[in-house]
Amino acid sequence: MKSKPPEPCPCGRPLSYAACCGRHHAGVPAADAESLMRSRYSAYVLGLEDYLLATWHASTRPAALDLELGPQPKWLGLEVRARTKTDDTADDTATVEFVARCRVGGRAQRLHELSRFVREAGRWYYVDAATD
């Protein structure tokens, strides 16, 4: 009997979900802001609202996301365009620019975002973003 190949990670890295974002969803802290951003994209794909809220900085975190309300997007892909550390002395802040593509109600959409992240007590958190 052939074993089923591992599921690819939704974030687009050439790894299995378990070896990539799945480990972050299971509690392993992301090593850097890009890894956190990718794991958050995968959490949106998989509907993991608890993970999204837990990785959102307390200063900007909403009370709930209600992902199940409204039309459900079908996420199509993620492209990371740039990543930068914004605090050279402590390496505790960073930005990640990305484009996420999805289809909602049959219409293709893209989200172009420059996300800000901060590291506190060894964990990265999403703070906020500028979109176009």
Number of strands: 4
- Low-pLDDT runs: none
Q: Tell me which oligomeric state these chains represent.
A: single chain
- Whole-number radius of gyration? 15 Å
Could you write a compact summary of the structure shown?
With 132 residues, the protein is an alpha+beta fold. The protein has helices at residues 21-25, 33-46, 49-54, and strands spanning 74-85, 93-104, 107-120, 123-131. The longest helix has 14 residues, at 33-46.
Describe the SSE topology.
Layout: H1 21-25, H2 33-46, H3 49-54, E1 74-85, E2 93-104, E3 107-120, E4 123-131
Antiparallel strand pairs: 1-2, 2-3, 3-4
Notes on the protein architecture:
This protein is an alpha+beta fold and 132 residues long. It is built from three helices and four strands, in the order αααββββ. The longest helix is centred in the N-terminal third of the chain and has 14 residues. Helix content is 19%, strand content 36%. The chain is globular, with a radius of gyration of 15 Å. Strand 2 and strand 3 form a beta hairpin. Strands 1-2-3-4 form a four-stranded antiparallel β-sheet. It starts with 20 loop residues before the first helix and ends with a strand.
